[in-house]
Amino acid sequence: MNQQRTIKAPVELAGRGLFTAVEGKVRLCPAPPNTGVVFVRTDLPKPARIRATIANLAPERQRNRRTSLRDGTVAIETIEHIMAAVNGLGIDNITIELDAEEVPGTEGSPKAFTEALLAAGFEQQPAEKKVFVIEEPISVADGDAMLAALPGESDYLDILFDLDYGPVKSIGRQVLGFRLHEDDFAEQIAPARTFLLADEAKEFQARGWGRHLTPKDLLVMGPDGPVDNELRFADEHVRHKIADLVGDLALLGRALRGRIVAYKSGHKLNHQLVRKLSEQVAAKERSAALVRPPQLDIRQIMRSGRQERLHQRAVLPGPLPRRAHHARGDDPGGHGPALRRAALTAPGTHRQGGRAAEYGPGQDAPTGPAGRPVGHRGRGTPRSHPHRPLQVPGLRRRRTGGRGGDQVHAGGRRAHLVHGPQIGQIAQTTLTTQARGSAPGRQRA
What pLDDT digit, counting tens, does each position of 395-437 carry? Predict the structure, then answer.
């Protein structure tokens, strides 16, 4: 049973809730892979969906004898018997539509739900079953009651339940072992009914619960045995406790593998154990995520970057022609005043004859030799650096003392290169050109 599975066709049941006595109808429907168990309240103006997980467990106050879900103000009561049927038959994905607050109680056992699911049939799904294998012992306790999850065989869940009612002779002590998904859940566990002591039944109805019920609807145990009823098994009580445990373990959202040992356990301890198991599931999934193979390969990233650069070179203008071409006015690369106006549009300053001159968008920026824009590197737009002078192609740079910058020489001209103050604004990089024999205040083109 490594694949997930659901039911083949929808199936319906109806009945009154054990606690509220409200008539309700439940419809069990197939669900896609990885859906899990989802309840849908269809009686509300806007249908509410609640996943059957421990995170949505309703507060246990006033619910110590049942398992319920809550999401905000929406609740679904007494789900343990239908969850036991789903988990006992190995169903992973199912949608349960309900038109009342409480699941129908039927006869206080998972039997009616189990028979309905078996009649619907099962369908394997193309997804791997979500399994959690118990690797570390976990235990919870409440007084002399105890529940533990222990490592065991990785292919099954073995349950050992020790029910001890001490001086109550009609129940006494009952011990039963059951292997989930290996032993016959439908025959051995599902028919076992809810039971109460006679005093508990009176208190139960005094609180307004189950007033429609009679001893014939569930097991009421007197000093000598069932009141107005008969046992289906000599140890029906412990079998029902296992049914409740199977239903509560389904709140983990995983098929559990290992061993469960219980002594006088009930819903309260069942919920505590599932919470601890859920913490282990989350920790294991976090650890698995840390060692997961990398999603990105640095070599692939570098190859992609190189391909992108090659693509940019293909679509951007080619290298600028030699100075000889510019000297003749021949500009085969398409560079010149148009490029200067298109590429250099940010405001900046340059020095003209020793004076700073402003220029703005749409105006020609200072040019280098043969009319090329200052800082142009031959591909795309010019670049600058906040701590470096711009590199003008074809110029030789020589360090100068006390000038606050470098001198560059090209074609018999000398220029003084001043550092720009900001990244990315080419126009703010200044160039002081000094021509031999040129009059002050005259800028050479």
Answer: 444 554 444 444 444 444 444 444 444 444 444 443 444 444 4
Taking CA atoms, 52 is separated from 38, 116, 118, 188, 431, in Å, by 6, 20, 21, 25, 73
The model scores a pTM over 0.70: no
Contact 313, 379 (CB under 8 A): yes
Contact 426, 375 (CB under 8 A): yes
What value does the mean pLDDT take over residues 81-101? 97
Instruction: Name the strand (E) or helix (H) holding 274.
Output: helix 267-290
Which residue in this structure is represented by tokens 């339940």?
A: 161
In angstroms, the CA 428 to CA 421 distance is 7
Indicate the DSSP class of residue 385.
B
Place of tokens 């951007």: 316
Q: Which residues contact 273 (CB under 8 A, 6 or more apart)?
A: 138, 139, 140, 147, 148, 149
CB 257 within 8 A of CB 131: yes
324 membership: H or E segment, kind and range: helix 323-327
Catalytic (active site) residue 267:
yes
Q: For residues 143 and 246, is the Cβ–Cβ distance under 8 A? A: no
Domains and CATH numbers, the chain: 3-284 (3.30.230.20), 333-434 (no CATH)
In order of 123, 292, 299, 312, 364, the CA distances from 302 in angstroms are: 47, 22, 5, 15, 38
d(CA 127, CA 34): 8
Closest CA to 157 of 235, 77, 71, 261: 261
The one catalytic residue among 81, 240, 267, 335 = 267
- 250, two tokens: 């389904």
Look-up of token digits 């002591």? 197
Task: Encode pLDDT of 180-212 as tens digits.
Answer: 999 999 999 999 999 989 888 888 777 777 777
